[in-house]
């Protein structure tokens, strides 16, 4: 069974198309005056439906459209061509990569109409592509996403694929995924260790956990991955111990949050912002993590570009920031022993 078949029922094209159109129709509004000099909704639909036929035709047109509107890419792609290709391939129920035979394939009129609506939502209203296609890729796996969860893009994927070597002394039996969102990190860990470890997937948002549960069921991992609603550690049983805690908490500071591209403001703010300096959640994680780790356990946390604030806030803590070969930064590691030794610093800062 492929990941695509697990998450999306390709035998029910009409149902999937109706779901996509319903979402798109709910976010398309009359054209704003600021876009008067750009192609109108009608122009986009007419061009896409009446003048373009192949995948390559449509992708090339989308690249031009994205450029004219200055859309921001960063939710799974880093260039307009890949962004356009993902939108088109999702409508075709194809997964990346794309080969030459796909580029020369002709799209049906119905497919072109749907892509045109998605293009309008993407360009004029800055809806990230994964929210339109309901799919995102993480650590080589496909996940269902919608606007209840942040779009998967964490560089923690590289650590999962390397099974957290050389940082773990043994294969983990129990893992805690803090701030799980779509469940992508928890599920990827369970799949990577092939059923040898149990993963608790924690999030404060009940809506996010609904999405996580859908993905857990899609991969038939109900016996291994458990979604838990909790404000960080608050609802976890005291004395529960994990070999590994992985956290991708909200870490965007107030200034960065206010100045982010529009696409990020389509995501749940609860999953992004974390106080003036971006460290509100991280402070609480550092304060409590040792209580939930085994003696040889480790904590891995992503803080992104809040790394500098973290170091300035805790100058005496020996954070080990992991060097990632595929890019990305701001992921630190602390052992259980280090967390215990540094407990006074965490307590002092949290007061």
Describe this structure in words.
The chain has helices at 3-7, 13-27, 41-51, 55-69, 80-91, 100-103, 109-124, 129-133, 156-161, 184-192, 206-218, 254-259, 280-288, 307-313, 336-341, 343-350; strands spanning 136-138, 141-143, 174-178, 198-203, 225-229, 242-247, 293-302, 320-321, 331-335. With 351 residues, it is of the alpha/beta class. Helix 11 (206-218) links the parallel strand 4 and strand 5 (225-229). The N and C termini lie far apart (51 Å). Residues 1-13 and 27-36 have low confidence and may be disordered.
In terms of topology, how is this protein built?
Elements: H1 3-7, H2 13-27, H3 41-51, H4 55-69, H5 80-91, H6 100-103, H7 109-124, H8 129-133, E1 136-138, E2 141-143, H9 156-161, E3 174-178, H10 184-192, E4 198-203, H11 206-218, E5 225-229, E6 242-247, H12 254-259, H13 280-288, E7 293-302, H14 307-313, E8 320-321, E9 331-335, H15 336-341, H16 343-350
Parallel strand pairs: 3-4, 3-6, 4-5, 6-7
Antiparallel strand pairs: 1-2, 7-9, 8-9
Helix pairs in contact: 2-7, 3-7, 4-5, 4-7, 13-16
Total count of helical runs of at least 4 residues: 16
Total E-strand runs: 9
Return the structural class: alpha/beta
Shape descriptor? elongated
Q: What's the N-to-C terminus distance? A: 51 Å
Largest sheet: 7 strands, mixed
> What kind of oligomer do you see?
single chain
Give keywords.
351 residues, 7-stranded mixed beta sheet, 9 strands, two-stranded antiparallel sheet, alpha/beta, disordered N terminus, elongated
Brief rundown of the structure:
The protein has 351 residues and is α/β, with parallel strands linked by helices. It is 42% helix and 13% strand. The N and C termini lie far apart (51 Å).
């Amino acid at each position: 069974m492929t990941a695509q078949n697990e998450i999306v029922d390709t035998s029910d094209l009409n149902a999937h198309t109706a779901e996509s159109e319903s979402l798109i129709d709910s976010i398309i509004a009359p054209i704003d005056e600021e876009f008067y000099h750009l192609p109108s909704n009608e122009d986009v639909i007419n061009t896409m439906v009446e003048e373009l036929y192949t995948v390559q035709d449509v992708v090339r047109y989308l690249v031009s459209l994205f450029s004219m509107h200055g859309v921001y890419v960063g939710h799974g792609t880093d260039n307009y061509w890949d962004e356009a290709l993902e939108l088109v391939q999702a409508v075709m129920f194809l997964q990346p990569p794309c080969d030459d035979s796909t580029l020369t394939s002709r799209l049906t009129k119905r497919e072109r109409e749907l892509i045109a609506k998605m293009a309008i939502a993407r360009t004029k209203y800055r809806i990230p592509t994964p929210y339109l296609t309901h799919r995102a890729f993480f650590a080589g796996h496909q996940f269902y996403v919608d606007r209840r969860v942040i779009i998967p893009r964490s560089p923690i994927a590289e650590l999962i694929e390397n099974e957290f070597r050389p940082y773990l002394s043994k294969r983990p039996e129990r893992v805690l995924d803090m701030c799980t969102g779509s469940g992508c990190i928890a599920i990827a860990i369970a799949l990577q260790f092939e059923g040898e470890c149990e993963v608790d997937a924690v999030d404060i948002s009940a809506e996010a956990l609904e999405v996580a549960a859908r993905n857990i069921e899609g991969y038939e991992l109900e016996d291994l991955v458990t979604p838990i609603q909790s404000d960080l550690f608050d609802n976890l049983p005291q004395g529960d111990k994990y070999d590994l805690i992985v956290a991708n908490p909200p870490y965007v500071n107030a200034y960065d949050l206010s100045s982010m591209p529009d696409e990020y403001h389509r995501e749940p703010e609860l999953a992004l912002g974390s106080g003036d300096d971006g460290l509100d959640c991280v402070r609480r994680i550092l304060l409590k993590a040792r209580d939930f780790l085994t003696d040889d356990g480790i904590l891995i946390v992503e803080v992104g570009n809040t790394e500098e604030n973290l170091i300035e806030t805790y100058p005496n803590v020996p954070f080990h920031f992991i060097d990632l070969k595929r890019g990305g930064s701001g992921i630190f590691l602390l052992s259980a022993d280090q967390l215990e030794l540094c407990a006074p610093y965490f307590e002092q800062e949290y007061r």
